[in-house]
Design brief:
Blueprint lengths: L7 E2 L9 H10 L18 H18 L5 E6 L2 H13 L5 E4 L4 H10 L4 E4 L25 E4 L1 E2 L4 E2 L12 E4 L16 E5 L10 E6 L16 H6 L9 H16 L2 H21 L5 E2 L11 E6 L6 H13 L2 E2 L10 E4 L6 H18 L1
Parallel strand pairs: 1-13, 3-4, 3-5, 5-8, 8-9
Antiparallel strand pairs: 2-10, 6-7, 9-10, 11-12, 12-14
Helix pairs in contact: 1-6, 2-6, 3-4, 7-9, 8-9
């Protein structure tokens, strides 16, 4: 199915990149635009990288239809660094923030934010992720500096089917690391969006921050300059040496998304791919089972068990072994939850998901 030259990569991140983009990068690796130098060797303040930096910002603004009163920043530190940066930049107004904890990453974000102020959980943290309580049941603090949620829990496979709102007009902050560029969103409903690039839009090393201008200008005094949204905005994301190669590849991926139909095409493909996988589970007589409530199952990261709802570890090990023989890699579930997980990011094609489903059917026939 896959080959040594083109494996079927269902990894959760760093994730598969479009082959077309990798080929472009390969062709320019030793000599960028006939300069005789690699882009990795060039100054981050030179005209070549300045254009890449500006073009990447422009592509994000166009693809997501980002309003003029929002800044687009490229930062380092990954999503985990952004957990701290959000609190350091936005908590200062009241010292309190609301967090919706629906899985592993929102839980880590809340724990990080608690170092810098008071964190209010808008609903009790579940013992085992798999659902999102109705928004009508949330307890929102009118004095919160912001309301934080993770749009798609990469580890747990929980995705929000709605954008939370605050009746008190509190800014909404979202971690979209694994869902950005997989669907259309109304940016004006958010105060801030953070997204590590290494899932849908590029390699590891750069984190995209989209922030409304009125939320700039009030970081905590202890906020490091490299995490200060205001400073990074004023410096056009080159306060210090950025992850130039990561931004360079990301810009190419963004252009690839535009070339291939934009967000509407990515969204249609995402729904189609995940439907294939969930239908196989539904038709498997519980041989394959997803532990997540149907109304919030992720289109992007699909966790499942093999051999029944609780999973059969021996069968799951066999599943991974047989999958790797077919050059299907990185299907092992996260170490915190076990089982199997297939990540269906933008660069993963429908045909590749169809091959995975074909293998699942054959495995079920043999071992079910």
């Amino acid at each position: 199915m896959g080959s040594s030259h083109s494996a079927l990569n269902f990894g959760a991140g760093p994730a598969k990149l479009p082959r077309e983009v990798l080929a472009q990068v390969q062709s320019e690796l030793l000599s960028y635009q006939d300069s005789g130098m690699s882009l990795m060797e060039m100054s981050h303040r030179g005209k070549e990288y300045t254009k890449i930096n500006n073009d990447a910002q422009k592509a994000i603004r166009e693809l997501l239809n980002v309003p003029d009163n929002y800044k687009i920043l490229f930062m380092q530190g990954g999503g985990t660094g952004a957990f701290a940066a959000v609190a350091l930049n936005l908590m200062n107004r009241t010292g309190v923030a609301d967090y919706a904890v629906t899985g592993t990453w929102s839980s880590k974000a809340a724990k990080e934010a608690a170092k810098y102020g008071k964190v209010n959980l808008v609903f009790p943290k579940a013992d085992k992720p798999g659902s999102i309580p109705p928004e009508s049941s949330w307890t929102l603090n009118p004095d919160a500096s912001y309301v934080y949620y993770c749009d798609n829990e990469t580890v747990d496979g929980v995705e929000f089917p709605f954008i939370p709102t605050s009746p008190h007009g509190v800014p909404i902050v979202s971690d979209m690391s694994s869902s950005i560029m997989t669907k259309k969103i109304d940016i004006s409903k958010f105060g801030c969006i953070i997204a590590g690039a290494q899932k849908n839009i590029g390699p590891a090393g750069v984190t995209v921050v989209i922030i409304r201008e009125d939320l700039l200008g009030n970081p905590m005094k202890i906020c490091p300059s490299v995490f200060d949204f205001t400073n990074i905005s004023q410096q056009n994301s080159v306060h210090n040496t950025p992850a130039t190669f990561s931004v360079y590849v990301m810009e190419k991926v963004l252009q690839w998304i535009k070339k291939n139909g934009g967000l509407q095409a990515m969204e249609n493909q995402s729904q189609d791919k995940s439907k294939l996988l969930y239908e196989e589970m539904a038709n498997s007589n519980s041989f394959y089972s997803c532990p997540i409530d149907e109304n919030c199952r992720s289109r992007i990261n699909v966790p499942f068990r093999v051999g029944g709802p609780q999973g059969n570890e021996e069968l799951e090990a066999k599943f991974l072994e047989e999958a790797e023989k077919l050059k299907m890699f990185q299907l092992k579930g996260h170490r915190l939850v076990g089982g199997i997980r297939a990540s269906l990011y933008n660069a993963v094609t429908r045909d590749e998901v169809a091959l995975l489903v074909k293998f699942m059917k054959e495995f079920r026939t043999q071992f079910g």
